[in-house]
Amino acid sequence: MHRAREEKMYAESQILHEADQRKVAGRAQKGLSHDRNMEGGKQVILHSCVRPHKPVAKATLQTCSSSTIVGGKALGPGCCEVLVNEVLDKKAPLICPFGTMNTMADTLGSSIAWIRENIQMILLLAW
Looking at the record's lineage, which domain of life comes first (predicted)? Predict the structure, then answer.
């Protein structure tokens, strides 16, 4: 019973993710930003949730809206949705595993929830 529920949640999250990707692509074709809030679109480094808090991935911040659904659950306060662009530590555990995603190795190219305190903005300097 529990496995069937997990599979249903995973399927629903995949449908939502695909719909979101279509929205982003459609807005990009129109020259519009895909940012969902003022922070969206920034490049960030994700730090592990266990000590020592070392870098585990590079990502793009999507939103910190607590009502956003990621992996079948609302983010809630203190979490953000990020899109994983590069994995630095494949064995790092996720704060909220779902479906087939349990470690950072499983997340490349996917949106996941991450604790805001463990997200570091990447400063890009223009010369």
Answer: Eukaryota
- Amino acid present at 98: F
CA distance 75 to 98: 13
Tokens linked to 37: 């809030």
Q: Is residue 59 part of a domain?
A: yes
Q: Is 81 part of a structural domain of the chain?
A: yes
pTM assigned to the model: 0.67
Cβ-Cβ contacts under 8 Å for 2 (sequence gap 6 or more): none
Over the stretch 78-106, which tens digit does the pLDDT of each residue have?
899 999 999 999 999 998 888 889 999 99
Q: Look at the chain and count its residues.
A: 127
Task: Give the DSSP letter string of 6-25.
Answer: HHHHHHHHHHHHHHHHHHHH
